[in-house]
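Hi support team,

I've been running sequence recovery on a batch of backbones for a student project. Most finish fine, but this one hangs at about 90% for roughly twenty minutes before it completes. I'm not sure whether the input is malformed or the queue is just slow. I've pasted the structure tokens below so you can try to reproduce it. Let me know if you need the job ID as well.

Thanks,
M.K.
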């Protein structure tokens, strides 16, 4: 039997380039939430790919921001930087829409700091293949990555080859996690993320950025011989008018939010649920140390 391989493969890059889409492709599960808006991901999300002879522990991270404006964003940047230390392979991701990143400091710094093999991943080739090729030439000289991949994470183009090269690059090592484990976070974390994803998809302007979701209660019972879960979640927003928008006329918006979130939560946990949503106003939560701690942004 060949030796078992295992390693940490960490994805970093600017907001919105497709990091979470790629993570989900690679592990074959909807681990990380996705939206067309930047700064969707706020935590380090582990997605573990298990086979008989390898275990790859992928990490998705929040997109790196140049000038964090509040403590929550600083914590997000910190999550992104921690992955430089434990990477066995670093995937630095960019996309064809990214003129704005050229000469990009945090990305160049990441390359310099990381001792592991670095793969540059240029995403969204479905939009502009020629631009992807130009970027590959540009970055090859600027960053000297160990490998460059042109992919479309959305259409799963080029991701098979990327995965093959990742498996080649990880070291021979025993598995870090039990072989049936898919992530390191509890079910309730993913439930709050799925609700947050729906907030990103259904509301606009500052609302998604002002909102946080906390699971207050998660109770599993048996109903008609099958597991059934009661979930009570609180949505924190920063102002009263945001609460009014979240709820909508006669509760219409929050009802729609609940319907959509429940559908995806049931799919994710494989159990029927009853979901109750409450909206609370906490003016300055993005800068409040105590709240950020209770929301899991700082230790
Ligand atoms: N056209 C195209 N769109 C893509 C591709 N990959 C991802 N997207 C879209 O790009 C947007 C951002 O994707 P995410 O996966 O949320 O990006 P992210 O890098 O995780 O973003 P943050 O969490 O905000 O840092 C979504 O609308 C995706 O559907 C791709 O290959 N082609
Ligand atoms: Mg993301």
């Amino acid at each position: 039997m060949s030796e078992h391989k295992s390693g940490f493969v960490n994805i970093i890059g600017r907001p919105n380039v497709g990091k979470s889409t790629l993570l989900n492709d690679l592990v074959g599960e909807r681990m990380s939430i996705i939206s067309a808006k930047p700064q969707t991901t706020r935590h380090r999300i582990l997605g573990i790919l298990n086979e008989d002879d390898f275990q790859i522990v992928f990490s998705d991270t929040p997109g790196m921001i140049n000038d964090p404006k509040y403590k929550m964003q600083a914590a997000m940047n910190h999550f992104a930087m921690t992955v430089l230390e434990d990477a066995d392979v670093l995937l630095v991701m960019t996309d064809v829409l990214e003129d704005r990143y050229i000469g990009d400091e945090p990305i160049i710094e990441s390359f310099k700091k990381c001792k592991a093999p670095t793969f540059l991943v240029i995403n969204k080739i479905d939009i502009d293949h020629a631009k992807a090729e130009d970027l590959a030439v540009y970055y090859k000289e600027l960053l000297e990555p160990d490998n460059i991949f042109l992919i479309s994470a959305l259409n799963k183009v080029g991701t098979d080859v990327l995965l093959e090269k990742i498996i080649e690059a990880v070291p021979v090592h025993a598995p870090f996690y039990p072989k049936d484990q898919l992530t390191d976070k509890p079910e309730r974390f993913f439930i709050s993320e799925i609700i947050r994803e729906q907030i990103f998809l259904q509301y606009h302007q500052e609302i998604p950025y002002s909102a946080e979701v906390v699971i207050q209660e998660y109770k599993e019972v048996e109903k008609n011989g099958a597991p059934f879960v009661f979930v009570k979640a609180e949505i924190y927003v920063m102002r009263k008018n945001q609460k009014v928008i979240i709820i909508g006329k006669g509760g219409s918006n929050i009802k729609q939010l609940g319907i959509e979130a429940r559908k995806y939560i049931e799919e994710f946990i494989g159990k029927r649920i009853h979901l109750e949503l409450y909206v609370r106003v906490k003016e300055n939560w993005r800068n409040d140390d105590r709240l950020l701690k209770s929301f899991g942004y700082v230790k």
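--
Follow-up from support: It reproduced on our side and the slowdown came from queue contention, not your input. The first helix runs from residue 19 to 27. No action needed from you.
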